[in-house]
Amino acid sequence: MTKDELQAICNKIPYFRFLDFTIETAEPDSVTTTMPFADRHIGNPEAENYHGGIVASLLEATAALSVSDDWDAHPPKPINLTVDYMRPARSGTLNAKATISRKGRRMASVATVAWQDNEDKPVAKGLFHFLLV
Amino acid sequence: MTDIKDDEWIAQMATLWQTRSKGLIHGLNLQVERANREGVRMRMPFNPNFCADEAETLLHGGVLTSLLDSAFGLSIFLAVGEIQTMATLDLRVDYLRPAKTRSDVIVEAQCHHQTRHIAFGTGQVMFDGAENEVVAHGTATFALTRGDQGAGHWSLRPKDGNEK
Burial level of A105, CB count in 10 A (0-12/13-18/19+)? Predict the structure, then answer.
């Protein structure tokens, strides 16, 4: 799907609007997104770090968008995920990239990474499986 | 384990966790229904903003993951007791059923094992009224720094013993 088509999905899915990310790039096998920091993303009362669930949510959203051919007819159904948290995600922009590892007719496997200022210092990596039918 | 001071500390921590929550935990409107060293149980009212569809009938998987991560945090904090910092190492979630209902969401989490440096958690998400049907199952590991000051970034202890 094109960048504009993916952005249109982001604009209409309630939880994607809550996350408030935008599409940066859309390639056949990868999608990148970017999300501004917001107070509602904070994870704990002491430090203004992202909640781990928000990091996982941005990764899952980016992964789902990367494998979708026709979102309205067949939104990808998440099967499972594994997220590795590597660094604290501090207040500031969070970026994500999803790269399709394998996409068949029924299943897709997607590798994701999230980073802030430096793409070489990821805050988290995630693997996601989706059912496409 | 069963002395009154311990019970009081747990009740105080569970209350602080909820009343001092901000950000996502506040936004989820999580209500602690049970919290002790054996595990926690929380309730989230249905919220259309967390849906994955325009018809607002299906909760997004990321919300279930966020619920599990939140419940792991409190359950491990209570189970370990003396904790200075705590960081999620990894989180795995299996989505077993579509989250297609407007019922309240129930999340339960337990710390099933702990070593000096690591705590292991397991948890599940169900809907009110259908608690025998697990919607999502999660496991997580946390890296711990133990200590008795509770001054670390993840601490919920009252500072100077008098903060409410």
Answer: exposed
